Amino acid sequence: MRQDSITTDVAEEDVEEDSGKEVQVLEFKLGPETYCVDIEYVSEIVDKGQLTGVPNAPNYVDGVMDLRGRTTSIINPKTLLNIDDDGESKRIVIFDPGKFEDEAATGWLVDEVYQVVRVSENEVEDPPMEKDDSIEGIIKRDGDLVVWISPVHAIE
Fold first, then answer.
1. What DSSP character marks residue 31?
2. How far apart, in Å, do the first and last CA atoms of the chain sit?
3. Domains in the chain, ordered, with CATH?
4. How does pLDDT run along the chain (156 residues), one tens digit per residue?
5. Long-range contacts of 48-57 (CB under 8 A, 24+ apart)
6. How many helices and strands in the chain, by DSSP H and E?
């Protein structure tokens, strides 16, 4: 499998003091929408390869794969987030197992990976729905909305 470097959009701009703390997020496509996760949780991005099915696994687990000698569970966030889309997922975002309580190796199937961008806390709005710990917030960017997902809470 090929590991790609992630393009970054981190312009060296003067940030006003009131703009809030900045964090880098990885933007990716799930169906027709753009989502993002804190880059701190991401260890790498790989092409989707052959997955091995797991009997009696939850419906959101598409299978497992061997990634450098470690069995990695591959999760379909479209199932977790009730995204009705039959588009082909081509990439896998692999999360750093050390960031999770159970230290399980997991990855998310995504349609495309776009870029890493800096986001100010002030750009993040509360989600317009009832409280869901898996959604960190909504970011408005160039007239589009980006949904910020918490990988920690999304599969609990």
1. T
2. 28
3. 23-154 (2.40.50.180)
4. 444 545 444 444 444 445 579 999 999 999 999 999 999 999 999 999 899 999 999 999 999 999 989 999 999 999 888 888 878 899 999 999 988 888 889 999 999 999 999 999 888 988 876 656 788 888 987 778 898 888 876 655
5. 48/89, 48/90, 48/91, 48/92, 48/109, 49/1
6. 2, 12
